[in-house]
Design goal:
Elements (H helix, E strand, L loop, with lengths): L4 E17 L4 H22 L12 H5 L3 H10 L2 H12 L9 H4 L11 E11 L2 E10 H8 L10 E8 L5 E6 L8 E3 L2 E3 L3 E3 L2 E3 L2 H13 L8 E8 L2 E9 L4 H11 L5 E7 L4 H8 L18 H14 L1 H10 L4 E3 L4 E2 L1
Parallel strand pairs: 1-3, 1-13, 1-14, 4-11
Antiparallel strand pairs: 1-10, 2-3, 4-7, 5-6, 5-12, 8-9, 10-11
């Protein structure tokens, strides 16, 4: 059986990391991305919706009624400018499709996720250091990858925060909205954006995890211990950051309810190290592929399990070995994956 998720590295002491960022044609890609935002805001105005900067796509149905996102999708894709801009952003992105991009246009779902995101070009491990190069792809290409429409070799990058409460519980959430609703996931988690740095692309993982902590939890100026894990699955490469706190679960929930965008999660909970073996073994999705729908019986998403396994190996090595065996080969470790 081919493993679903491979844990490449777990670091007992946070690793040093250094990545450069490149792009096929950054000026063209950035201009087309800005053009998509302008087109979207024009079509939003015609429907009576506020600009994307004020109401993110994930909030449209809650703000304007069920079906609002689909209405925007239909309005945008019927505009003759959309196909031209779509073709520009996907051709300027890293990665090659399994068939022509013209045929794949219908697989882009709800084009309000309009970001430049990082993809892996090269990752190197040397002791307690991780180095490499990221490429740049539009989020449309990331969607195609998730739908199995891109050739092997394209690896979108996601960053994950292993946020721990005062009592060393790892914070979890049950997802809502349009993506894996009902699934259990560590918080935060998100695609690594490519930022504009004086006219050059920069996929800075520190900026990325800080942004995710603010967006999903409402954390301001969080203390990040550092990079503690790297894993890969068929759709992405994941980088796990340890985020210890000195506050309780109830205090984190108060901050989340007061400050964060709560549309991504319908509830929050936490799992302690002693509870992790049973929780992972009982709840990890055991299907042999990453399915688009959550298994209601085993709702722990594979990437969430990978983050928890990173935590478990750092704090309870014996328990980690037993859990890996209980997952029947769907999760694997590479030789030399653990770094003291």
């Amino acid at each position: 059986m081919k493993p679903l998720v491979t844990i490449q590295r777990i670091f007992n002491r946070p690793a040093g990391c250094s990545f450069s960022t490149s792009c096929r044609n950054y000026a063209e890609l950035r201009a087309a991305t800005d053009g998509l935002r302008q087109l979207e805001n024009e079509r939003r105005a015609s429907l009576g919706y506020e600009p994307v900067e004020k109401v993110p796509g994930i909030s449209l149905d809650a703000k304007y009624g069920k079906g609002s996102r689909k209405s925007l999708h239909a309005d945008m894709t019927s505009d003759p400018r959309w196909m031209d801009i779509y073709m520009t952003v996907v051709r300027a992105s890293d990665g090659e499709p399994v068939e022509s991009y013209e045929r794949l246009a219908g697989d882009i779902y709800l084009p309000d996720w309009n970001e430049l995101t990082a993809v892996v070009r090269e990752v190197n491990f040397d002791g307690n250091a991780v180095t490499g190069e990221f490429g740049t792809a539009h989020s449309y290409v990331s969607q195609l990858k998730r739908n199995g429409k891109m050739q092997d070799g394209l690896e979108p990058v996601s960053v994950y925060g292993a946020v721990m409460t005062l009592s060393a519980q790892t914070v979890m959430g049950q997802r809502s909205g349009m993506s894996y609703a009902g699934g259990h996931m560590t918080i935060p988690a998100g695609s690594l954006k490519v930022y504009d740095n004086l006219g050059r692309p920069s996929a800075n993982m520190w900026w990325g995890i800080i942004d995710e902590l603010g967006e999903e939890l409402g954390f301001d100026a969080p203390r990040i211990e550092g990079l503690v894990g790297v894993f890969k699955d068929p759709t992405l490469r994941g980088f796990v950051f340890s985020v210890p706190t000195l506050i309780t679960e109830s205090e984190i929930i108060k901050i989340w309810k007061k400050s964060a965008d709560m549309k991504e999660h319908e509830r929050m909970f936490s799992v302690g190290v002693s509870e992790m073996p049973g929780y992972i073994s009982q709840n990890a999705d055991m299907r042999e592929e990453i399915a688009p729908r959550v298994d209601p019986v085993r709702p722990l998403l594979p990437s969430g399990a990978a983050v928890l396994l990173t935590q478990l190996r750092r704090y309870s090595p014996k328990s980690f070995d037993g859990v890996i065996q209980s997952l029947d080969g769907l999760f694997a470790t590479k030789e030399g994956y653990y770094v003291e």
